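Let us work through a complete example step by step.
Step 1: write down the sequence.
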Amino acid sequence: MSDPSPASGPALDRRLHLGGAVAIGLASMIGAGVFAVWAPAAAAAGGLLLVGLLVAAFVAFANAGSTAQLAARYPESGGAYRYGRERLGAWSGFFAGWGFVVGKTASCAAMAMTAAAYLAPAEWMRPVAVAAVVAVAAIDLAGVTRTARAATAIVAIVLAVLAIVFAAGVVASVVSPVAIPDAPAPGPEASGAFFSRPGTLGAYGVLQSAGLLFFAFAGYARVATLGEEVVEPARTIPRAIAISFGIALAVYAALAVVLLAGLGAERLAASDAPLADLVATAGWGWAAPVVQVAAGLASLGALLALLAGIGRTSLAMGRDRELPAALARISSRTHVPHVAVIVVSVAVVALVVVADLRGAIGFSSFGVLVYYFVANSAALTQPRAERRIPRWLSAVGAIGCLVLVAALPWPSVVAGLAVFAVGALVRAVALARRRRLSA
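Step 2: predict the structure and record it as tokens.
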């Protein structure tokens, strides 16, 4: 196993306790998705939205178990990149790391633009998005404890607002109850579009909704990517993953129930701002601006956790020369991978300036599923002494990732394959160059 703390320079410090680790996990999971995922998920599954949530939760539970088990054995930076490299080989680790770094860098740009869309007028969207990236990068560069404190504050505010939304949903379901229809059988129109009317995709639609919901609350891996900065990692990381996943699942389940009861599947599927529509249905118009601000803050929380996770994965890949070695440099003052955080932040700002990626990052979903497939496959190879979950659960997690990949719309699959093909070419060229230099 590679040395996570090279003697030639400063190392990461174990400063992150359970509370901070849980906050970072929650910031990843209760981000923009909790405000935006419901409409496309309902468009796919219709009245079977809760079934889609259940499928997503089970696959995510299996993935979380595998991740926690591996993190206890390999408490280093990099998450599934490190696990894949150690258990399955360099290529498997590289694909997990490449998919995460490239896909989530695009996701960071999307989160910055989403936050700006909620918090600023349209003409100020890009400048505000750039400012958000700079501010979040400054927090990450100040140290992991600052990142955890900021995540804690954001999560506390967002959860408080979501509690208001839930209460409004209960009122709306009483004042104007909506019967939740069963999803009809797939019709001929289902073959011609990704989403048509709610529920027309049948079982396939349930899987598509599960995929969307899985991506929305699968951020518990962010805790594992910070493995070298967690106090008592073998104990703290599995607990942080379990707690953050449990809270996020409870929040999503509660919101799914009141959204279906208060709006109904068809209205939910057509809504651009379902949580705001829910509070309006309850007659709580005053809460709509509060929901909008909370959505912006949630996007910033997801950006904060994402940037930290990408920086640590880039650090791990830089150590192994899978990415430029300069990315492995660590600040002697704040003990963070400052070069990696700065490079990723500059890349995100560049993406924000030249493109709006909010609707064009399907390959990120593909990359997330590859990431977790590698993690589950790595967990399957662990001996009995290292196991914390049954081997069959890791197998279910791996199979679930493949099923959800198959349910992705084909443009996402094609884009994902293209990104991984570029990564394979880059690595093959780099390996050939090293062989020539060593010959």
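Step 3: interpret the result. DSSP finds 18 helices and no strands in the chain.
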